Amino acid sequence: MRVQVLHDTPLAPLTTFRLGGPAARLVTATTDDEVIAAVREAKAAGTPLLVIGGGSNLVIGDKGFDGTALRIATRGFALDGTTLEVAAGEVWSDVVARTVEAGLAGIECLAGIPGSAGATPVQNVGAYGQDVSAALTEVVAYDTHEDATVTLTNEQCRFSYRHSLFKERPDRYVVLRVRFRLEDAEGLSAPVAYEQTARALGVGMGERVPLAHAHDTVLKLRASKGMVLDPEDHDTWSAGSFFTNPILGNKEFAAFRERVAERLGPDAEAPAFPVGASATKTSAAWLIDKAGFTKGYGSGPARISTKHTLALTNRGEATTEDLLALAREVVAGVRDAFGVTLVNEPVTVGVEI
């Protein structure tokens, strides 16, 4: 079995931030067997392992990674009726587009999200009213503790907001394949479940629209926010949303509302989305903006996107430390203004925020 192995190779070109130092060893695997062999080899040698898919959710330190970086480049897309199985290395935006072409609904609003299919269950990727976990049925993964390939059900994946078993245990599971159950709605989308999408489509919440129209509308919405990769647009040299939307317990949210009133006036209302009976989710983008970090904020090579306050970007000459300095400034500013601590969505490697 022959795989591509490179030494002292820069990782920046493999990330959407285009940041990060070199890996001591970079292995590119194109089959599940090659992935498993590379993981076993690193484990046997006691070498740190970093798994890279599309690199859209990684912040790698300027010093790089002193271990084995495993780039998963597997391919595979198999449809059986409304059941879909895709290899972890497939480009996610291509997967979504192909399901739309096949007339299957369920993930059409996840169009344009950068990265690989194998990364989607890790973060429980979601946007515009859809989450991967709603359509996902199983994940086939390599269990490094058991040295075996395992199939995990949706329930076993322990999905929650931007979270999963795979995020909890990155040292244990390496995603190989992902399975979905989609819907044949006779060329129509799933019911529209996000207000901004409904407005853009000119329909009411819960209505269905032609599948391709939903897909293309979401792509346009994402592009307007710099959330569709474009090498010529530095607003897309990012990880998309850099911070998760805070979920606050009832007491925390009450205190937060008081801080909002103190800072912005008694009539100010922060976005609020109930999460069960005991918590409320608010908007990280709103918090950042109201704390004074507007679109385009920053004077250095790392700045907030000119299109969306939730995206931190590399303007072309940034280092990871430049990006981290900006992230820390935003976190501190939001905490000082509203008493809420933002949590980064991308995974950090060799650095902390």
Characterize this entry briefly.
The protein has 353 residues and is α+β, with helices and mostly antiparallel strands. The protein has helices spanning 32-45, 92-101, 120-123, 132-135, 165-168, 195-201, 211-224, 250-264, 284-290, 320-338, and strands at residues 4-10, 22-29, 49-52, 58-60, 65-72, 77-80, 83-87, 126-127, 130-131, 136-143, 148-153, 173-181, 247-249, 273-275, 279-281, 302-304, 312-314, 347-349.
Describe the 3D structure.
The protein is of the alpha+beta class and 353 residues long. The protein has three domains: 69 residues, Uridine Diphospho-n-acetylenolpyruvylglucosamine Reductase, domain 2 (2-Layer Sandwich); 148 residues, Uridine Diphospho-n-acetylenolpyruvylglucosamine Reductase, domain 3, CATH 3.30.465; 116 residues, UDP-N-acetylenolpyruvoylglucosamine reductase, C-terminal domain (Uridine Diphospho-n-acetylenolpyruvylglucosamine Reductase, domain 1, Alpha-Beta Complex), CATH 3.90.78.10. The protein is built from ten helices and 18 strands. The protein has a five-stranded antiparallel sheet with strand order 6-7-12-10-11. A hairpin with a 4-residue loop joins strand 10 and strand 11. The radius of gyration is 20 Å and the shape is globular. It holds the Pfam family FAD_binding_4. It is an enzyme of class 1 (oxidoreductase). Belongs to the MurB family. InterPro entries: FAD-bd_PCMH, FAD-bd_PCMH-like_sf, FAD-bd_PCMH_sub1, FAD-bd_PCMH_sub2, MurB, MurB_C, MurB_C_sf, Oxid_FAD_bind_N.
